[in-house]
Amino acid sequence: MNTTSNSYVMTFAVGMCVTVSTVLALLANGLRETQQAAAEFDRQKNVMMAAGLIQAGDARTREELEKVFEEKVTEVTVDVESGAVVADAEDAGAKRKEDPRRYRVVGTARTEKGEVTVLPVSGKGLWSTIYGYLALESDNDHVRGITFYKHGETPGLGGEVENPQWTAQWVGKSIRRDNGIGVIVKKGKVDEGVPKEKAHYVDGLAGATITSNGVTSFVERDLKAFEAYLSKN
User: Fold this and answer.
1) Could you please report the per-residue DSSP string of 68-79?
2) DSSP character for 187?
3) For 137, which of 72, 114, 142, 184 could close a Cys bridge (C-beta 3.0–4.6 Å)?
4) Longest CA pairwise span in the chain (Å)
5) CA 156, CA 104: separation in Å to the nearest integer?
6) CA distance 215 to 134
7) Are 220 and 228 in contact (CB under 8 A)?
């Protein structure tokens, strides 16, 4: 066999490509459930962090944290147009697939200070869609906590949305303003001497104006979407 011939080289290359592709496909299929389970666990952790049930870097095992979620958090599917809860689980799943912006999952977390509502928030930053959770105190006005857990923003700039020191600034802010709803990410630093800023604003992300504006916009949009539900609860 002439191993230097063009036909041999082409056959070998094609064979290797097919073999590697097959192996990768099998690995991807085999790991899909594991990856999905890991993504779901990450989502659950962020729900709990927003609600204040756990802190970032909690040292408990996965099994222990999953038990906390099971015991402390209840999630329902909400029709944001009417504010009604879709009671049937199978129907809720089908509706979420059909129209994910209208039918959305809302959490209720039982904390030492009472029940906390945990709302999903997401929208465009500079480079990516940013996903997070915003928790409201029982008055449905003041922020209990917020987390951003999935995005593709620039590290050190827009990527600072996930920095606990920045998200901590949201705690206690009022979402209900005279001319709207939401928390405003200011360009620059909040002036604590101005009552309106102290109540409704957080510091901007340095060097990330578009990401900051994006967060302000999509948090406002999502809170408006949930107003019918919040008014009933």
Assistant:
1) HHHHHEEEEEEE
2) S
3) 142
4) 85
5) 31
6) 12
7) no
DSSP H/E element including 5: none
Interacting residues of 207 by C-beta distance below 8 A, sequence separation 6+? 157
Per this entry, what is the length of the chain? 233
Of 82, 118, 124, residue with least CA distance to 99? 82
Cβ neighbors of 79 (< 8 A, separation 6 or more) are 85, 86, 95, 102, 103
Q: Which residue has the tokens 């927003």?
A: 50
Sheet holding 73-79, edge to edge: 84-86, 73-79, 103-111, 114-124, 129-136, 143-150
> Which residues contact residue 62 at a Cβ distance below 8 angstroms, ignoring those fewer than 6 apart?
41
Q: Could you tell me the pTM of the whole model?
A: 0.84
Owner of token pair 């869609």 = 129
Q: Which amino acid, residue 230?
A: L
pLDDT tens, the chain, 233 aa long: 556 666 655 666 666 776 666 656 665 566 577 888 899 999 999 999 999 999 988 989 999 999 999 999 999 999 999 999 998 989 999 999 999 999 999 999 999 888 999 999 999 999 999 999 999 999 999 999 999 999 999 999 999 999 999 999 999 999 998 888 999 999 999 999 999 999 999 999 999 999 999 999 999 999 999 999 998 87
Six-digit token string for 224: 């408006």
